[in-house]
Amino acid sequence: MNLKFSVFFLLLSFQLLAQQYKEVKDIQYYENPTSEYMEKQSRLDIHFPDSDNNKKYPVIVWFHGGGLTGGGKEIPQELKNKEVVVVGVGYRLAPKIKAEETIEDATAAIAWVFKNIEKYHGNTEEIFISGHSAGGYLALMVIMNKENLAQYDIEANAVAGLIPFSGHTITHFTIRDQQGIPGTQAIVDKWAPLFYVRNDAPPILLITGDREMEMLGRYEENAYFYRMMKVAGQKEIDLYEMNGYGHNMVYPALPLLLKFVKEKSDQ
C-alpha cells in the first residue's frame, strides 16, 4: 500500500474513532404546562456525546441573556463537541409574565436536568450552571436560594459549580422596573442573589466584562458579591474581569467556563 493510501486510511480510522455528537431540541421540562405560553417557551435543547459505552460526561446548563424580556434558548457553538453535555434552556419572558417568574422556569429546567440527563450520557454529579447576563442572574438565583430546588427534592449544593457571565447580583433591573424602581437605584431583596450569601455554596466563578466597559455597575455588583461570600466563609469562589471586553464578553470567556468544568470534574 503506497503512502497516499496509508495516510487516507489512517485519517479515516481517526474519524471513525472520533467522538460523535447528537442534538435533541424542544424538550418540554414541565410535566404539566399551565398555559399555552408556558408550553411554548419552557423547553430546552441538548447537545451530547453519542457514545455506546457507559461513560458519563460533565453537564453545562446554559441560560441565555436578554434582560428577562428577550432572547431565546441557545447552545453556544464554542461549547459543542467538547466532551460535555450542554443544555440550552428557554424560559418565559416579561412582560407576558412577572419577571421574577423566570426563576420558576430556570428552577424547573435544572430539576429536569437532574432527573433526566443520564439518558443523554450526562453525569448528575457534575452539573454546572451557567449563563450570560439575565441568564447569569437566573443561574445565581436558583442555586443561591436553596428553597428553589428544594421544591423538587433536590439539594442546591449538589450542583458541581456555578459560573455566571455578567449576571446581576442585586435585584434584576427588569424586576425593579416592573415595580417602578429606576435602574440606578440598587435593591437587595429576596430577588437578589446577594440576599442569599452563605458559606456552603458550590464552587463559583464570577466572570464580568471590563469594569469601565460593562453595563452600569455590573463588575462592582459581582465584586461585592465576591467579597461578601468570602467574608461569610465561602472557600471556592473567584472573580475574573475580562479586560478590554464589555458586557458582550461571552465568546472570549467560554474557554474559562470549559477550563473550570474540566478542573472541577477531574477532582
TrEMBL record:
Signal peptide annotation: 1-18
Top-level lineage group: Bacteria
Parts of the chain that traverse the membrane: none
Gene Ontology molecular function terms on file: hydrolase activity
Ribonucleoprotein found in the keyword field: no
Pfam families the record matches: BD-FAE (PF20434)
Every BD-FAE-like domain range: 44-211
Keywords (A to Z) from UniProt: Hydrolase, Signal
UniProt-recorded name of the protein: Lipase
Highest classification ranks of the organism: Bacteria, Pseudomonadati, Bacteroidota, Flavobacteriia, Flavobacteriales
